[in-house]
Amino acid sequence: MSVGTGLALTLGSAALWGLAHLWTGRRVTGALLMGVYLSAVTAVVAALFGAGAELLSLIVQPGWLWAFTLGGILFAAATVAVVVRSYQLVRPESLSGPARYLSALAVGLLCALVIAPMAYAARLAYLSRSVVTSVFGASATPIPVDPWRGRERLNILLIGADAAANRIGVRTDSMTVASIDTRTGATMLFGLPRNLENVPMPPGPAHERFPFGFGGEPPYTPGMLNEIFQYAEDYPAMVPGVPKGQRGPALLKKTISDFTGLDISNYVMVDMYGFAKIIDAMGGVKVTIKAPIVYGRQNEGLIQPGTRRLSGEEALWFGRARTYSDDYVRMGRQKCLMNAITKQADPVTVLRSFEKLADATMNAVSTDIPRELLPNLIELSDKVKSSNIKSFQFVPPLIDTGNPDYGLIKHKVAAILSRSDDAPSAPSGSSAPSGSSGNAQRHPGNGPTSLDTVCG
Length: 456
What we know:
CATH class of the largest domain: Alpha Beta
Strand content: 5-15%
Distance between the termini: 65 Å
CATH superfamily of the largest domain: LCP protein
Largest sheet: 7 strands, mixed
Number of strands: 11
């Protein structure tokens, strides 16, 4: 047998175990190796293309991530063993010293090529475990097999936090309640202005401290909704028994639950500058811009209208800019940005830039969602991605942020959710469509707006 034939059979054995064994007459061993290999490959391919959300639900569980890591290492080791043994079987006995060394080097390189993708897969599994364990804590109580049983909606508070180095504390400048139908995935986003004043506080120490609505020290000057988070962090007595770092989210969830009538179970908070890094890790995000948006702290540029892919910094300004605009218009743009990310964060995009995404996520995201709930949330998120996400914003003229009608807010939430399954989309009860200029005409409207329609 020639050197070329021997190396070709060795290479073939890396792609299909048992090939060299069959060639050399070891039929039983070759057939066994080939059967094991084809079974393993078939199972993996079927899982990748057929399991969908079920597979994703496994890769957010630390135990399974360890299993994937170990499985990848063992498969690589087994393939290397098969390659080496195959070379021993087909190697010509008459090889001279230099030829022997060169052929051995070629086999060594082949083994390295086999190990590399398996090692990378093992690294991805390890990074996934790091993200899951660092961002998501363990549940204090057991999670039911079906956590949505008897629960029609899951309400999660989404917070965009501005904690720049030149500012004291955390300002929750973006607050949205995502209300998700646990059966269909249909999602309603309720946008809450950061400057809502006289916010009624929930029963307990906070209400005793501010019986007439949240405000500053005597003479009780009005305070805004985006100040509650940091106030709770600074004054532990407002949420007794809650550890530092969770006081702000705890009081903010209670407060918003109380005046919206929604049972908000969890929160997710994203640091604004970390958010830009997440967008960059995704390779940018594509949005439709309806009117020029001023870009930069010194108003040094414009993001021009049109459908374009924004970098992380551009996306940050798309969601934050208020020049020639206002809080309410930018709230609409923020919803469009959330919708775009939800639709564009497909598995291929995530896998392609996983390491950067993992690093950005660990530094930018905080939440009280327990890791044990992640498999169920993955399955639910698959329904959300295929649903028509809608938005309703509690902004002028429907709501006077200086003197809000909190009873009207609660009534509107209940009315919208009661007809959300069959009501046609109507103009938002909020500001002008996202991306429009700050001078656009506003109208109260009676129903939610489809983000797919508004955002383009």
